[in-house]
Amino acid sequence: MYLSRHSLLLLCALFLFPSFSQGQTLIETLKRELAGFKGTAGLYALNLQTGEEIAINADTLFPTASIIKVPILVGVFDKIEQGELTYNQPLMYRDSLKYGGSGLMQFFQDSTETDLSVLVSLMITYSDNTTSLWCQALAGGGVAINALMENLGLVHTRVNSRTPGREANREQFGWGQTTPREMAQLLVKIRKGEVVSPKASERMYRLMTNIYYDENALSAIPPYIQTASKQGMVNASRSELVMVNAPGGDYVFYIATKDNEDQRWEEDNESYVLKRTVSRLLWEAWQ
């Protein structure tokens, strides 16, 4: 039997890449992908256009790593709304604020003049740790931010680091903790203008559309499609929050992992492959 080049390529794609077109539904394919992960994986996805919902370990607690910077962002904008801060408020960087890991401000010279808009932009775009801890303090600390999460109906999403009474949680989950369902719900609320105020939600959403770390879930979405996102990565936990402003209607997902066996920082890390696969499957199914 003769097969054209196009037919051969199609057959290769079907065998090499997961697809829900092989007699399985989207949810069945996603369950299979998460079940094969060496560690614990969870997913919550919601199509805002159709209401279709996918929940796999969606109410399991996971470390947030840097995704806790979204609740910190909410805390900062709440202070702006209350008149205690201003978006372009002048600030001065001091070496005493330096914190390692990701980000750029740790390399600034002592006494460098900056402002709050730069802090929140670096915190979200480049996941800057120094500005994030600075913003956490400006927002009133973890206690104030956690109260905001509680008021939004998010009972599991919490800042742990530098938050009195949450030392045991920090030992287990690190800087913050959440569930896939709750963090996705927070982004949906921001998208709908329901967090702090419509104006504040719009500004927060704009900040989340400018992300440097686009190699994983975002790489499976065409570059001309707007996304709002945040990534969180430590050795044993790699997670990603994404809202896709797709032509066929917005959808959101949160893919979380913990207890990862593969803790390498290479492109083919198992969690990175999983995030790209989940993102691609959702895009293909819902677009």
How would you explain this protein's 3D organization?
- With 287 residues, the protein is an alpha+beta fold.
- The protein has a single domain, classed as 3-Layer(aba) Sandwich (Beta-lactamase).
- 39% of the residues lie in helices and 18% in strands.
- It contains 10 helices and 10 strands.
- Strands 2-1-10-9-8 form a 5-stranded antiparallel sheet, with helices on both faces. Strands 3-7-6 form a 3-stranded antiparallel sheet. Strands 4-5 form a two-stranded antiparallel sheet.
- It is globular, with a radius of gyration of 20 Å.
How far apart the termini lie comes to: 34 Å
Helical content class: 25-40%
Q: Could you give the order of the helices and strands?
A: HHEEEHEEHHHEHEHHEEEH
Determine the mean pLDDT: 93
Number of helices: 10
Low-confidence stretches: 1-17
Structural class: alpha+beta
Give the amount of beta strand, in percent.
15-25%
Biggest sheet architecture: 5 strands, antiparallel
Pfam families: Beta-lactamase2
GO molecular function: beta-lactamase activity
Domain Beta-lactamase class A catalytic: 42-257
Protein name: beta-lactamase
